[in-house]
From TrEMBL, chain A:
A GO cellular-component term linked to this record: mitochondrial matrix
Subunit structure and binding partners: Heterotetramer of alpha and beta chains.
InterPro entries documented for this protein: THDP-binding (IPR029061), Transketo_C/PFOR_II (IPR009014), Transketolase-like_Pyr-bd (IPR005475), Transketolase_C (IPR033248)
SMART domains registered for this protein in UniProt: Transket_pyr (SM00861)
Record's keyword terms, sorted: Mitochondrion, Oxidoreductase, Transit peptide
One GO biological process term: response to nutrient
Catalytic activity: N(6)-[(R)-lipoyl]-L-lysyl-[protein] + 3-methyl-2-oxobutanoate + H(+) = N(6)-[(R)-S(8)-2-methylpropanoyldihydrolipoyl]-L-lysyl-[protein] + CO2
An example molecular function term from Gene Ontology annotations: branched-chain 2-oxo acid dehydrogenase activity
Residue span(s) of domain Transketolase-like pyrimidine-binding: 37-206
Protein name: 3-methyl-2-oxobutanoate dehydrogenase (2-methylpropanoyl-transferring)
Keyword Lipoprotein among record annotations: no
PANTHER family linked to this entry: 2-OXOISOVALERATE DEHYDROGENASE SUBUNIT BETA, MITOCHONDRIAL, 2-OXOISOVALERATE DEHYDROGENASE SUBUNIT BETA-RELATED
Enzyme Commission number(s): 1.2.4.4
UniProtKB/TrEMBL annotation, chain B:
Any one GO molecular-function label of the UniProt entry: pyruvate dehydrogenase (acetyl-transferring) activity
Cofactor: thiamine diphosphate
Domain of life: Eukaryota
Name this polypeptide is given: Pyruvate dehydrogenase E1 component subunit alpha
Length: 351, 400
């Protein structure tokens, strides 16, 4: 029985991978002059603009000179030359530091996030502080893919955002769509602080929407209410938002009105927007792919309980990855799926 | 910044070194394929390319082998080749998920190494591990079951392509973080030095991994403490899409240990690999670590998402196939020494193909792991976690 149910889940996995991504209107940027494109093209466009608009911007990382594994850096080396867009050897640890100290300006780089962790945490994040503002790594933006793709296995599907959210001194950004990715990436590159920019792997090709051609930026540390509702607040980021939105639609059929918030910036995060929403709805649900224990959902939950204790009508719900390594064959079990979210919405509302 | 390197470095043209199948042995009598009484007699065969050494002697180019060994090399490599090609199809049919890195082209390293050592010696490698596992005595069924995430797999279906292990014959896997297996391999050698059992550890890594810092840290300790560690750089000339000369100031990986001796070996020649590994084992037991750079080539792209033809030419790939293919080299040796007929070798290939197909069919019958396995092996004891309900949405955890 067990085996056959697994097989069914296996198929379910394939189905999930064909999920639609719904475009959410963004008042700030949308001029409908945009071209329809996917997430990696939007990122590619942002990198073109960043290099174009700032002669001191560079892009470097493993294979970026050839377009990168996910094609995000296609064409950059041809357009801007090998001295600004270049491959590095496979040494995550040493790529950065000296270069950024002597050329203190904007750079986009790609890395195997976890391999870089020691450098990000101990060097990039603390340089400004420990030198009394003489030096900083503010020009650094580290781009890294994150998250599940339906079949990635143990390493390539991880969501390590919470590790980096524990490091004051860096910013952590996760976009949900092509349009968002372009604006947030340009803001990240131009922000005077080191930024870790996680890109939802699942959406590189899958998410397609109109992206304005021009140079625009979206504000960091500002969450966005992408769907208004009155019964419960849902908070998420990146690829998980499309799953949460599906759950909101299902809940609506059962008469539950959900408010959905895209946090966008995880560190430092926009508590006010979430707080205002929870004051209105009285209920909160957070969902992310990373394991539930010690995930960033815990931080949101604790902060909101501090701020809205008397307003809450139910315990804060978290629908997250399980506390196991990211599994290869059990991915559909592990993931915070639409049904799991829907159930949590119902039990929170009926608490 | 060594970025604007001269367009094509000299090391690239070296890829196509001629076979020159140095078959400098007196022709022997034609032996019937299977019933030979003296298929263990000694044959001496010269490697086609000399070894190059760094801070040590070079082993002799004359390698001792036997008809039996050559025939088993042929069979083992043909099995590996067929297995990898079948894995390619299974991946395309979505029966294998996750990441998958194929070894075809590099088979001589796996079989040559095994021929020089015993299963008491340890081997540890990166994610390109299917054939190394087979060389250590793993079965086709275990391979295909693991690839497809089935219970009969060598890691119970929980590891997948990158995580094959076989503890009973000293195969320590199967590692996804590039370079991380090398310190582990030196740790294995530390344990061996401790237990004084005359065994050594082989830590395999790629030309891309050779630029990782942790490799040099491990090498320092291994040399400082004279650990019986053999670092095997499988130089297939590319780390994903990056050619070696774009990533390494010195692509002479066998010299990069500085104070650690090294040997450059034709990794497409199973006999040369065997000779080098034998030499290295003796060296390591007496003097501590040594680096073996195996000059080899992968025919497939880096992983299944890489067509493998954007950063190198098709001519380069087909050139290596024609000039240096490890299986063809052994086939030629067998034929010139009259150890089997062309037809007999073709039959072996057919037989191997059948075995692979049977293993796949059998693996497909093996069940997926039980859902409860999601929660086992996270900690030694299991936390008493279970998932239940429709869609497994509820989780219950009992602290031990
Ligand atoms: C620390 C780390 N960085 C990056 C990667 C992504 N990656 C996987 S394999 C690979 C290339 C390694 O090339 P090489 O060492 O030459 O081995 P080969 O694949 O040629 O066998 C890269 C960059 C990784 N797995 N781990
Ligand atoms: Mg390589």
């Amino acid at each position: 029985m067990a085996a056959s149910s697994m097989r069914r889940f296996g198929r379910l996995g394939c189905w999930v991978s064909r999920r639609e991504f719904s475009t959410c209107d963004d008042k700030v940027v949308v001029q409908k002059s945009g071209k329809s494109m996917n997430l990696y093209s939007a990122i590619n466009q942002a990198l073109h603009i960043a290099l174009e608009s700032d002669p001191r911007a560079y892009v470097f990382g493993e294979d970026v000179g050839f377009g990168g594994v996910f094609r995000c850096t296609t064409g950059l080396a041809d357009r801007f030359g090998k001295s600004r867009v270049f491959n590095t050897p496979l040494c995550e640890q040493v790529h950065l530091m000296g270069f950024i100290l002597t050329w203190p300006h904007k750079q986009g780089i790609v890395g195997f996030g976890i391999g870089l962790a020691a450098m990000i945490v101990n060097e990039a994040a603390k340089f400004r502080y420990r030198s009394g503002n003489q030096f900083n790594c503010g020009g650094l933006t580290i781009r890294a893919p994150y998250g599940a793709v339906g079949h990635g296995g143990h390493y390539h599907s991880q969501s390590p955002e919470a590790f980096f959210c524990h490091v004051p001194g860096i910013k952590v950004i996760i976009p949900r769509s092509p349009q968002q990715a372009k604006g947030l990436l340009l803001s990240s590159i131009r922000d005077p602080n080191p930024v870790v920019f996680f890109e939802p792997k699942w959406l590189y090709r899958l998410a397609v929407e109109e992206v304005p051609e021009h140079d625009y930026m979206l504000p960091l540390s500002e969450a966005e209410v992408i769907r208004e509702g009155s019964d419960i607040t849902l908070v998420g980021w990146g690829a998980q938002l499309s799953i949460m939105e599906q759950a909101c639609l299902e809940a609506e059929k059962e008469g539950i009105s959900c408010e959905l918030i895209d946090l966008k910036t995880l560190l430092p995060w926009d508590k006010e927007t979430v707080e205002a929403s929870v004051r209105k709805t009285g209920r909160l649900l957070i969902s992310h792919e990373a394991p539930v224990t010690g995930g960033f959902g815990a931080e949101i939950s604790a902060s909101i309980v501090e701020r809205c204790f008397l307003r809450l009508e139910a315990p804060v719900a978290r629908v997250c990855g399980l506390d196991t390594p990211f599994p290869l064959v059990f991915e559909p079990f592990y993931m915070p799926t639409k049904n799991k979210i829907l159930d949590a919405i119902k039990s929170t509302v009926n608490y | 910044m060594a970025l604007a390197h001269a367009a094509s470095s000299s090391s690239r043209s070296n890829l196509l070194r001629p076979f020159s199948a140095a078959i400098s042995c007196a022709p022997s009598l034609r032996r019937p394929f299977s019933s030979s009484s003296d298929d263990t007699r000694t044959l001496t065969i010269e490697t086609s390319v000399p070894f190059t050494s760094h801070q040590c002697e070079t082993p002799s180019r004359s390698v001792e082998t036997s008809p039996k060994e050559l025939l088993s090399f042929f069979r083992d490599m043909a099995t590996m080749r067929r297995m990898e090609i079948a894995a390619d199809s299974l991946y395309k049919a979505k029966l294998i998920r996750g990441f998958c890195h194929l070894y075809d082209g590099q088979e001589a390293v796996a079989v040559g190494m095994e021929a020089a050592i015993t299963k008491k010696d340890s081997i540890i490698t990166a994610y390109r591990d299917h054939c190394t596992f087979l060389g250590r005595g793993g079965t086709l069924l275990q391979v295909f079951s693991e690839l497809m995430g089935r219970q009969a797999g060598c890691s119970k279906g929980k590891g997948g392509s990158m995580h094959f292990y076989k503890k009973d014959s000293g195969f320590y896997g199967g590692h996804g973080i590039v370079g991380a297996q090398v310190p582990l391999g030196c740790g294995l050698a530390f344990a061996q030095k401790y237990s004084k059992d005359g065994t050594v550890s082989f830590a395999l890594y790629g030309d891309g991994a050779a630029n990782q810092g942790q490799l040099f840290e491990a090498l320092n300790i291994a040399a400082l403490w004279d650990l019986p560690a053999i670092l095997v750089c499988e130089n297939n000339h590319y780390g994903m899409g990056t050619a070696e000369w774009r990533a390494a100031k010195s692509p002479s990986y066998y010299k990069r240990g500085d104070y650690v001796p090294g040997l450059k070996v034709d990794g497409m020649d199973a006999l040369a690999v065997k000779q080098a590994c034998k030499f290295a084992k003796e060296h390591a037991l007496k003097n501590g670590p040594i680096i073996l750079e195996m000059d080899t080539y992968r025919y497939h792209g880096h992983s299944m998402s890489d067509p493998g033809s954007t950063y190198r030419t098709r001519d380069e790939i087909s050139g290596v196939r024609q000039e240096r293919d490890p299986i063809e080299r052994i086939r030629k040796l067998i034929l010139t020494h009259d150890l089997a007929t062309e037809k007999e070798l073709k039959d072996t290939e057919k037989e191997v193909r059948k075995l692979v197909d049977e293993a796949i069919a059998q693996a497909k019958e093996s069940p997926m792991p039980d859902p409860s396995e999601l929660f086992t092996n996270v900690y030694s004891k299991g936390l008493g976690v279970e998932a239940f309900g429709a869609d497994r949405k509820e989780v219950r955890a009992v602290l031990p």
